Amino acid sequence: MTASSITPASGASRTLSVAALESALADAPFYQRWRNHDPGPLSHIDGRYAALPILTKRDIRVHMPKGFIPRGRDFKTGIESGAIELVTTSGTSDDRATIVWHQPWWDASEHAAARLHAGLDRVINGSQREAVLATPLCAGNICHIGDLSMAERTMGRLLFLNQKPDPTHWTSGDMERMLDELNRFAPELLEADPAYLAILARHAANKGITVQAPRFISLTFEFPSRLHYRQIRRLFPLTPILSSYGSTETGHVFTECERGHFHLNADYCRVDLQPLCARHGGPAIGRMLATILQNPWVSLLRFDVGDLGRLAAAPCPCGRAGLTLDSIEGRTRDLTFTTDGDAVTLGAVDRRLGDIEGLLAYRIEQHDRENYRFLFVAEPGAEATVSNESSARLAALYGTSARLTTQRESAIVAEQSGKFRLARTLFTWDPETLFEQETDRP
Ligand SMILES: [Zn+2]
After folding, report:
1. Whether residue 66 is found in the same domain as residue 123
2. 86 and 123 fall within a common domain
């Protein structure tokens, strides 16, 4: 299988893919330098995409806005008329970028993505009452830090619950305020960072606090661990929980359907998966290169969003066609390696550890080829069994020559970005060497 055979090419999505590629190459100044890579309109569209370079965050940082706005549209006029605004993406200073934001496109992308899970489109209708539990550093173009009242954190149909950049610093008072606000606001949709909601749900369950359930919980912003699901289920045992995958740059890319698979939001996004080399998990696992479709203001082609996806092994029983993933496997930068040097995704780590009774949070750190440190938080009384069980499972995952130390923590704190890192290496490696290159293919 090659990357060029992966994207499904139904008639409509092929037409949108052609339009996005041709208008970017013809009209957006940044892609002038890419034109000579395009084999041209007589070639299959998937081959044309596969022949193009990859767009990086750095490219966006350097060339946004003007490089990506098509000729015929004027940035200054767009800002002055309110058609567009500039939005800074979340993340650490290294990977923050400013992008052109066109609200009608974002809304259309969100509505289309909601149709990929039964019943969700009846909740996400543009007027849904929605509570957001995530880093207060930035959610889209809105920032909330500090001691604002509930009224000041309510913007029409939206309530922003959190006021602290690291949820491990929440006090009981903070959490009980948020639980109380959830009851008073009674959202139809709770959009949450899974790590944040897990901490809040655990506190509520331990204290015997109940909360009126929303109609849907949408997990987004970072990798949802099995541990998060388990803790969230203690507070919301019956509420449908789905994972929604996207970014400020790309809009809504994948929605998890009611059968647990991820379907592409194909009218607004194209995704090419560049497979990992076979020894690292390819061709089923690859990095997502996203192209946004139908955005009149911005052309992004083959943008490396930094995450890995695993292709569905079989058609989804829900019956939806098109590009389908079995899982989002976590960030490329969160790969670790077996003692033989084979890549291990965060998804693979989480599948190993996710059902260990009493495990509440973890981070695996690889120091060099054979030395690993496992930090964990456990339920009181479960520390010894969690430590032993985790060690055995991680040895099976990384190799029998792995030297593993375990370390119990009272909490594992968030990174500066407000996100948690569940796996990391403490040495440098070149991600480009892990992926199958276009020239490797027959
Ligand atoms: Zn499905």
Report:
1. no
2. no
| Distance from Cα 318 to the centre of ligand 1, integer Å | 4
Report if residue 442 sits inside a domain: no
The total of other beta-carbon atoms located within 10 Å of residue 3's CB is: 23
Q: To which residue do tokens 């390696």 refer?
A: 337
Cα-to-centroid distance, 190 and ligand 1 (Å): 21
Contact 328, 347 (CB under 8 A): yes
Cα 263 to middle of ligand 1, angstroms? 7
- Distance from Cα 264 to the centre of ligand 1, integer Å: 10
- Do 162 and 223 have their domain in common? yes
- State residue 12 phi and psi, 5-degree precision: -65, -45
> Residue 186: left (phi > 0), alpha (psi -120 to 50), or beta?
left
Same domain, 293 and 387: no
Question: Ligand 1 center to residue 256 CA distance, Å?
Answer: 7
The structural domain count of the chain equals 3
- Ligand 1 centroid – CA 265 distance (Å): 12
pTM of the predicted model over 0.70: yes
Question: Which pLDDT score, from 0 to 100, does residue 287 have?
Answer: 97
Domain that holds residue 376: 336-434
* Low-confidence stretches of the chain (pLDDT beneath 50): 1-8, 139-141, 442
Q: Is residue 441 domain-resident?
A: no
Q: In angstroms, what is the span from residue 15 Cα to ligand 1's centroid? A: 24
User: At which of 239, 271, 286 does a domain end?
Assistant: 239
Residues around the ion ligand 1 (C-beta < 5 A): 257, 259, 261, 316, 318, 320
365-391 pLDDT tens trace: 999 999 999 999 999 999 999 999 999
Residue at which a domain ends, from 334, 363, 398:
334
